[in-house]
Amino acid sequence: MAGERFQSFGRATPAAKRTVAADTAIELMKSGKAKANGLLAYGNGRSYGDSCQNEPGSVVDMRSLNRIGAFNVETGLLEAKAGVLLSDIIAHAAPYGFFPAVVPGTQFVTLGGAIANDVHGKNHHRRGTFGCHVESLTLLRSDGRTYTCSATDNARLFAATIGGMGLTGLILSASIRLMRVPSLDIVETATRFADLGEFFELAEAADQANEYAVAWIDQLAGGHGRGRGLLLSGNHAEQGSHQASRAGSRLSVPVQPPFNVLNRPFLTAFNAAYRWKKGRSAEPRQTGYQGFFFPLDGVGDWNRLYGPKGLYQHQSVVPEHAARQAVPALLDAARRAGQGSFLTVLKRFGSIRSPGLLSFPRPGFTLTLDFPNRGDKTLALLGELDRITVAAGGAVNPYKDARMSADIFAASFPDWQRLEALRDPAFMSSFWLRTAKKLEMPRGRVEAAE
């Protein structure tokens, strides 16, 4: 049964109607009986939009493929099935002094999902994307063949699968290279900045001096406080824990509230408290890795706080030369629309190129905003954010999206046809249907479809 268990994390799009177990899907593919557009891998449901949904077909529950295989404690090379969670990889490797080179904002993503979305973290300037650390992967396609893919073997499939949103086939397993660290703990420094101009002056130096750097913006602040925030930088502590703390939620939202809890009064109070707590001292402090990398993992089902209609996340990247104009314009657009973002995150992407064909990160600055789904009002704002981003020469992140137009996708990823050429014909997503497949239609048919 599908239901809420196979919904996207944003919960603004319908849950999957049909699901199939991983073993069943594998048998279908090996026997050549998989139907066109009938399958799409589903990891642990942490994608915000509909790139993890397949309206015309079924999603494949990959969580049964969750075994960690060989691990070289000298080199940090780890082999695992695609359904293994990053939290399990962290726990497995920590006693030997290793940690994933790149982690996103939650540890509850699968290995296959991290590859398919080519996730990034707070250290893109040092380590690039997750795909930069994938040595090889095994990919099952609907022709019944299993392909071993790497930078040298089946290289085109390898590049298309990293950041390919699960459209090239079923990732069965992967070999990744972890990073040696002195401990899991992080020495964190919080630096206040009064406005975005001050942040841009601080950002490059923070990247050069630290493994990790990310800024939190007080998106609701106006007047003299407009653009203020905290620059949080960090490095692994020389002395600290080598044991992963228990991966789980200390708190949870047990039921769905009938309305959006994250309203403006709440957000104003939260921002004030967060700014005070994190920014009350400029002195470095040692903290656990969970709080630094995965603060929201401590609250189970926190996405329910946005209300029964769910949330939209908008993540953009704009070139460095345009950021001083584009980032304030994005924040001003949200403020004018009267929409408050619970978490507003600004980071600097470095120049390390991903091996992935359609990877989102590129040199510049990336801004992430979360909005409760208020229907047409929110969709209009998101459309305006798209327009500002593309006009600045930037891109909108498809892995976080649930509504961008085909034209915005094409402007963000002009090489999308290269992925379409390598897409497995048995695999499709709701995202790909409303973007890439619309771009393939003659203009008259597109207008009729709309």
TrEMBL record:
It comes from the Bacteria. Transmembrane segments: none annotated. Pfam families: FAD_binding_4. GO terms for molecular function: FAD binding; oxidoreductase activity. Residues 9-181 form the FAD-binding PCMH-type domain. Keywords: FAD, Flavoprotein, Oxidoreductase. Belongs to the oxygen-dependent FAD-linked oxidoreductase family. This is FAD-binding oxidoreductase. It comes from Mesorhizobium neociceri. The lineage of its organism: Bacteria, Pseudomonadati, Pseudomonadota, Alphaproteobacteria, Hyphomicrobiales.
